[in-house]
Amino acid sequence: MPTATNAAPKSYAAQDIEVLEGLDPVRRRPSMYIGGVDTRGLHHLVWEIVDNSVDEFLAGEADNIKVTLHKDGTSISVEDNGRGIPVDKHKKLKKSALEVILTTLHAGGKFSDKNYARSGGLHGVGSSVVNALSSEMVATVHRDGHEWVQRYRRGKPTTPVKKERPFRGHGTSIFFRPDDKIFRRIHFHPDTIRQHLEDISYIHAGLKISFVDEVHDQKYELAHPDGIKAYLDKIIKDESKKVVHEPVYLTEKDEKSIRVEVVLKWTESTDEHVRSYVNGIRTRAGGTHESGLRGGIAKAVKNYMDVHNIKHKGLTITPDDIREGIVTILSVFHPDPMFQGQTKDKLNNPEVLNVVDGIVRPALETWLNSNPSIADAVIGRIVLAARARQASRDAVSEVRRKTPGSKKSNLPGKLLDCRSNKPEESELFIVEGDSAGGTAAAGRDSLTQAVLPLRGKILNTESLALNRILQNNEIQDLVQALGAGVGPNFDPHLIRYNRIILLMDADSDGYHISTLLLTFFFRQMRELIQQGRLYLAQPPLYRITVGKESWYARDDRDRDEILASLPANRNPDIQRFKGLGEMNAVQLKETTLDPKTRTLLRVDVDSVVAADETFAQLLGKDPSERYRVIMEEASEVDDLDV
User: Fold this and answer.
1) From the candidates 336, 351, 507, 625, which is the catalytic residue?
2) SS3 for 119?
């Protein structure tokens, strides 16, 4: 996000105020609506249209959705057999309802429960946003015995709503081609689309989804009548987790028509895996429903242990111990969900916490009481987790007690450590080069922020034995700084920092180093990623100055958006940072280090199997795999650094 650093410009009057009309705000600031103009934002357009079709399923009006990636690889069609978008004239606006919905922000039929008791699209902006960001869109509606068609270009209708021909069926089909003036590159990934659609088919048992990939001449039929129970089995199988018991399945609806569906298993893994959905939409950042789930699980187990007087002298069992190794899928259907932002990554409804807790806690406690042998296995697994955690805490405390004044004695000399001895409040920045390390050290909060500079590109650890990896000096320094072991001996409870942040230059070399580090962490310290403790910093590439006002841009697209928003008579000074070392400490702190103003990307792994395959392809010993990926993805390359 560009940040103004100084006072407002001297000239600031009524003529400087812009009023954006229609869909112009979307085209001017697309990131506000789809999260970005990168690959994720591009695919978000597909999700918005698909979510509308899913809402017809939730309303009981559709059971089939067909998604087609056309042969050109740059256009998509989404078709359902629902009621069809209304085409009659809107009384107030004197336009067809179809045109109103697709060309007006905050227009739709989901602001009340009259037509949709539950839906994922409640802001009334999804379809119109896709229209605004598409160079071409065609809406085809089947209803009232006819086929109706309207065409659009960059959010504006190019034809009226036309009655094309008689038609006996019903439903809606949306064709769109994203605008290459908005997106960095137009290239849809069939695997990404198929995986997302398959997730939806698991969450909505009874919904049939077809995905036609015309680029590779493949068709997929996605339907899972067993719903999230089958989904849980798939996740556990994909990640090769060893389970402790058969799945626990809970479902209930409260008096406010909030339906909660949960399936869970304890495994012998040491990480906690929660995948949550609201009205079929993946909530990657969690929210109140996840908080209610976690609290309900912990309370149910504690109540069971109290009722059965299960105690272990000197052992304190925490909620983290109880949930260690658990794999669970939570699906909530709410008549009025409050999402955080248009991308809907987080649920904010405060009442949902108590609803989910109130459903999960008694149901899980009843299940434990009804299955005493399985409950014993679960409790045994929890006790082992508590003992391991306590042993780790005791070991750390003993080291600190014996060496209060020599905290850095066994740490690498280049590490600029923080002063705090509390891991929960500390974070480590892994920085590219001594120059950037010096700037980061000058701009950091030395109480809680540590800096470890690396010398150039680290070793490619893919396909290498651990003993060979540990011969590398940079890897040795990294392992020593973290203090939690490596490979099979890695213990996340011993790690010296709560967050590990990769801070590299915003160029191809920086991306390469980040990829090499991600490979190392994925192969040798995977639990660090699974616990959500590994992050990528987002340093700016440009500083744009006009008079006394400045903005920072992360990339060329961000720079162009800022320049386009400036008055034509202003002459901006554009500074390109060739590396982090070119920034002064104040600039680096303001844009990248300070938790109040920085942006961090958390490293997350949806599928261990897919991630494993990706690292093997990109960094493995077989060059033919890299050649194949490069040739298939060459169309996405904006700039090649040789």
Assistant:
1) 507
2) coil
Helix, strand, or coil (residue 486): coil
Q: What pLDDT digit, counting tens, does each position of 453-463 carry? A: 988 778 888 88
* 487: Cβ contacts below 8 Å, ≥ 6 apart: 466, 524
| Mean pLDDT value across the chain | 84
Structure confidence by residue, pLDDT tens digits, 170-204: 999 999 999 999 987 898 999 999 999 999 999 99
Strand partners, 326: 266
Catalytic residue among 79, 80, 198, 505: 505
Active site residue 509: yes
Rounded Cα–Cα distance for residues 450 and 444 (Å): 8
Is residue 123 over pLDDT 50? no
Active-site choice (61, 63, 144, 509): 509
Cross-sheet strand order for the sheet of 281-282: 248-253, 259-266, 326-333, 273-278, 281-282
Phi, psi angle pair for 94, to nearest 5°: 60, 30
Q: How far is residue 157 CA from its own chain's centroid?
A: 33
Angle at 500 between CA 499 and CA 505, to 5 degrees: 130
Give the C-alpha distances (Å, rounded to integers) separating 547 from 10, 412, 572, 609: 9, 44, 8, 52
**For position 410, what pLDDT does the model report?**
65
Q: What are phi and psi of 29, to 5 degrees?
A: -135, 70
C-alpha torsion 236→237→239→243, nearest 10 = 50
Scored b (16 or more CB within 10 A) or e, 389-415 reads bbebeeebeeeeeeeeeeeeeebbebb
Of the candidates 432, 477, 558, 590, the residue annotated as catalytic is 432
505 is catalytic: yes
Catalytic residue check, 604: no
- Burial label for 59, CB within 10 Å (0-12, 13-18, 19+), is middle
Domains of the chain with CATH codes: 24-222 (3.30.565.10), 228-392 (3.30.230.10), 423-539+601-636 (3.40.50.670)
Distance of CA 1 to the CA centre of its chain: 18
Q: Give the helix ranges, DSSP H, for 348-451.
A: 350-370, 372-402, 434-443
CA distance 395 to 387: 12
User: 576-631 pLDDT, tens per residue?
Assistant: 887 777 788 888 898 899 998 888 888 988 777 777 778 887 887 777 766 666 66
Report the length, in residues, of the chain: 642
**Helix residue ranges per DSSP H, 403-525:** 434-443, 466-469, 473-482, 508-524
Instruction: State yes or no: is 394 an active-site residue.
Output: no
**pLDDT digits 0-9 by tens, 251-283:** 988 777 899 999 999 998 878 889 999 988 888
Of 431, 600, 414, the residue nearest 505 (C-alpha):
431
d(CA 343, CA 346): 9
